[in-house]
């Protein structure tokens, strides 16, 4: 069964970031009805993420969230736009993930903001972040400005296109490749790696 | 089973008084702590090696030599000796000298050091950390075992028919532990040589170290040194004791809350729950330490961190009294009785010497 982790970094409740995350999950599920979806609200883990920064290890609750993201076949990641980029909480969560956790994983990215002016944040901030982590963002990413919620027709079109692309990637790849353990036998180490 | 303490030698302001010891006071305090460790019946004193403030122990063999002169039983060790930035020739000579002066009561723990700026102070580059640890240790291993060594490698000038002096006492090189926080390469290195593997253990949950120790045990067997459960494992631990649990928690909390490594993060209670830290009565320390064996298997050396985060010397010495009197004898008895006969003790100079002569 395909599992999809949804990471949402919205801070208010209810949150338009969560709303967009749900919309993206829904449009994916309309193509992959059996997909199992696990939503991770970073708001609930904000303090735990900071503690992990200070100690170098996650609390049990954060560990569970990290494990879900690491084990998922695909990731939907949605952040509000803060000061010209993803939010600090969103970035911090990916900072405490293992560097290899997202290797080869399809990712559907989304962002929310007050005006359309910020929509390029998807391409100048989020896409490079996931490229660095060796994840594979799908071609269509979805930005929702306040005005989109007033007339959702166009947003729905974009979300369903993104969902279709994401679902196609998930079903074509099956499960993501296991991360490289990095183990090197000693003879090879001694010979200079 | 060996019990001991390992110190990092930090000079930290005491958060309850706002006062920090001078370097002189801290260095002398470390010596006092080592002498106390022998007095209360511990087996091992290990000091860190650091080259940047707020740490003072930049010269471990000088300190250990001074302690050796004032002790007669305790094993002197390091936590850790930097195999990356120290010249392996100098390590070979320094520790062989110490071994003679201390009548063989010496072993050492190798580490890489994880702060980038330190490497260039000694002409090295942190990006080469693992290759340096591999090549330098391989040379060190030979220098202690071959009287005349010709060698060439990537990181230092070649050696031509070189003899490091003094030769190891009785022809027995000091036993080596390899310390690691996250590198499987180092577990593999320890297994390859049949050396000990030490998991610092103290600041992270056990799961983090179980993977490394299991890898070490499995590869120890692979390289033919014995069964996986006979591999030589050491663990760190961290305790603060008072006869009554509530007193320990109340007294340690300000030190915990402001400690450089974990302060201003999780609560004392959360950290105690998630890591090996025990703050409480001797019985609580005993109970928690016994769980280490359940998590990692029978092991040979347990070192506790007792003197950091600005704790005053007087408090540290009181801790050692409690540890020596109420904790170690019970743990020693329990762990020795649980350990199967085929699982060895940690090697000592005496045990290694008898292997050589047999």
From TrEMBL, chain A:
Keywords: Oxidoreductase. It comes from Amycolatopsis coloradensis. Its EC number is 1.5.1.-. It comes from the Bacteria. This is FMN reductase.
TrEMBL record, chain B:
Its EC number is 1.-.-.-. Keywords: Oxidoreductase. This is LLM class flavin-dependent oxidoreductase. It comes from the Bacteria. It is an enzyme of class 1 (oxidoreductase). The keyword Oxidoreductase applies.
């Amino acid at each position: 069964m395909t599992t999809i982790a949804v990471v949402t970094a919205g801070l208010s409740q209810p949150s338009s970031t969560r709303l967009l995350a749900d919309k993206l999950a829904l449009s994916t599920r309309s193509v992959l009805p059996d997909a199992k979806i696990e939503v991770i609200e970073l708001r609930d883990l904000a303090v735990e993420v900071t503690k992990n920064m200070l100690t170098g290890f996650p609390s049990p609750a954060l560990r569970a969230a990290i494990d879900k993201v690491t084990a998922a076949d695909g990731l939907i990641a949605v952040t509000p736009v803060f000061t010209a980029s993803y939010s600090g909480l969103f970035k911090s969560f990916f900072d405490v993930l293992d560097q290899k956790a997202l290797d080869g994983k399809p990712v559907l990215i989304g962002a929310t903001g007050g005006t359309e002016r910020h929509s390029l944040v998807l391409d100048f901030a989020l896409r490079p972040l996931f490229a660095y982590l060796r994840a594979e963002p799908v071609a269509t990413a979805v930005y929702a400005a306040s005005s989109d919620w007033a007339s959702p027709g166009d947003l729905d079109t974009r979300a369903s296109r993104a969902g279709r692309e994401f679902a196609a990637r998930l079903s074509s790849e099956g499960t993501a490749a296991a991360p490289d353990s990095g183990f090197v036998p000693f003879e090879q180490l001694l010979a200079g790696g | 089973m060996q019990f001991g303490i390992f110190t990092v030698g930090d000079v930290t302001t005491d958060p309850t008084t706002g006062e920090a010891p001078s370097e002189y006071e801290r260095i002398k305090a470390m010596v006092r702590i080592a002498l106390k460790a022998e007095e209360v019946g511990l087996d091992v004193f290990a000091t860190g090696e650091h080259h940047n403030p707020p740490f003072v122990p930049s010269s471990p063999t000088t300190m250990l030599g001074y302690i050796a002169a004032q002790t007669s039983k305790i094993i002197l060790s390091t936590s850790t000796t930097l195999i990356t930035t120290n010249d392996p020739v100098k390590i070979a000579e320094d520790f062989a000298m110490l071994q003679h002066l201390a009548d063989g009561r010496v072993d050492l723990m190798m580490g890489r050091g994880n702060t980038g700026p330190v490497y260039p102070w000694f002409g090295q580059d942190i990006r080469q950390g693992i290759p340096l640890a591999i090549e330098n240790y391989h040379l060190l291993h030979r220098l202690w075992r071959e009287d005349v060594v010709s060698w060439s490698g990537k990181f230092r000038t070649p050696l031509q028919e070189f003899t490091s002096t003094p030769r190891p006492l009785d022809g027995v090189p000091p036993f080596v532990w390899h310390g690691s926080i996250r590198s499987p390469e180092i577990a593999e290195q320890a297994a390859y040589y049949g050396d000990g593997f030490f998991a610092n253990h103290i600041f992270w949950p056990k799961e983090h170290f179980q993977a490394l120790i299991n890898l070490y045990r499995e590869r120890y067997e692979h390289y033919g040194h014995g069964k996986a459960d006979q591999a030589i494992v050491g663990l760190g631990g961290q305790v603060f004791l008072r006869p009554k649990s509530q007193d320990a928690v109340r007294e340690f909390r300000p030190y915990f809350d402001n400690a450089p490594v974990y302060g201003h993060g999780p609560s004392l209670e959360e950290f105690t729950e998630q890591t090996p830290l025990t703050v409480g009565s001797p019985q609580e320390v005993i109970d928690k330490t016994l769980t280490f064996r359940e998590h990692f298997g029978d092991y040979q050396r347990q070192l506790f961190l007792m003197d950091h985060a600005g704790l005053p010397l007087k408090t540290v010495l009181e801790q050692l009294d409690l540890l020596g009197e109420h904790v170690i004898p019970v743990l020693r008895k329990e762990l020795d009785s649980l350990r199967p006969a085929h699982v060895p003790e940690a090697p000592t100079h005496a045990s290694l010497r008898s292997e050589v002569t047999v």
